[in-house]
Specification:
16% strand, 11 strands, 10 helices, four-stranded antiparallel sheet, 3 domains, Rossmann fold
């Protein structure tokens, strides 16, 4: 695989490992009576997925909506951590992907989960959340193992407690010695968690802008961009805009089991998009 290829991963990449898609995550989280009975969710549309529901709550100027937002976010992230803790060995398809990705220009993951990182780690491929070492894994939507300490001086984000910044320019930090363990176990303050939501263009932070800047830089160096399991949802307006601009003039390949998703890519990226209908373990990348 040429290092001129960049991979872009969506939820469809992780589902083979047991991570639920957003609609499935909604069903599992809302099975909890504590979530069902939140006043802020009394009138919510049960057909909207977790990301859409969180967006709805974020744009509602109501105290009960704010409490529901934090509770739903924490429940979703806790469930993702639980899925990781219960996860058996990754299927062979992830080993194949890791070997190919290890020779690529990098990975852009739009997933909060850690399946991509785990696949690389298991295959003994050096990776990092920075573009200056190892195979870069850039996560514009954040990650369940990232913490956000915007109120702390930069030098205090690197302490003896095992945390390190993902690079020298940001307050986002994680535990490089143990990236697959919840760094905020026991904390309920969602302000310390760094996960971003598609569609909230008016709430972009400098950190998020920098992550998208790294995404653009990775793709700029590539001749080919391979989207795996990312459906380009209508509400993910920033991602759609960023990828449309960054992928102009690139060879674009889309691996997705949905014909509708492939049609969406052709509509926004052009008819020259190479579509491969199927799950990522069923298709050559």
């Amino acid at each position: 695989m040429s290092n001129q290829t960049v991979f872009v991963l969506g939820a469809g990449f992780s589902c083979l490992a047991g991570i639920p898609l957003m609609n499935e995550l909604r069903d599992e989280v809302f099975a909890d009576p504590c979530i069902q009975n939140l006043p802020g969710l009394a009138d919510h549309d049960k057909q909207r997925n977790v990301e859409e529901t969180l967006l709805d709550l974020r744009t509602t100027a109501d105290e009960s909506a704010a409490r529901a937002h934090d509770a739903l976010l924490n429940a979703s992230l806790c469930l993702l951590w639980k899925k990781h803790q219960m996860m058996p060995d990754l299927p062979e398809a992830y080993s194949r992907f890791a070997r190919i990705a290890g020779e690529s220009g990098g990975i852009v993951s739009l997933n909060w989960d850690l399946v991509c990182e785990l696949a690389l780690y298991t295959a003994d491929i050096k990776w990092s959340y920075s573009t200056d070492r190892g195979i870069p894994v850039v996560k514009p939507h954040g990650s369940i193992n990232w913490t956000n300490h915007p109120q702390l001086p930069k030098q205090k984000s690197k302490s003896g407690n095992g945390f390190a910044q993902i690079d020298a320019e940001r307050s986002i930090s994680y535990r490089p010695d143990d990236p697959f363990r919840d760094p905020l176990l026991g904390y309920t303050d969602s302000d310390f968690k760094y996960v971003a939501f598609p569609g909230l263009l008016h709430e972009n932070s400098a950190a998020t802008d920098r992550l998208w800047g790294e995404t653009r830089s990775l793709i700029a160096k590539a001749s080919r961009v391979v989207f795996i399991g990312y459906s380009l949802p209508f509400y993910d307006t920033r991602s759609r805009s960023e990828f449309q601009n960054a992928c102009s003039g690139k060879q674009v390949t889309v691996i997705d089991p949905s014909e509708e998703a492939l049609e969406t890519y052709q509509k926004h990226f052009g008819k020259e998009v190479v579509g491969r209908l199927g799950k990522f373990d069923e298709c050559e990348v």
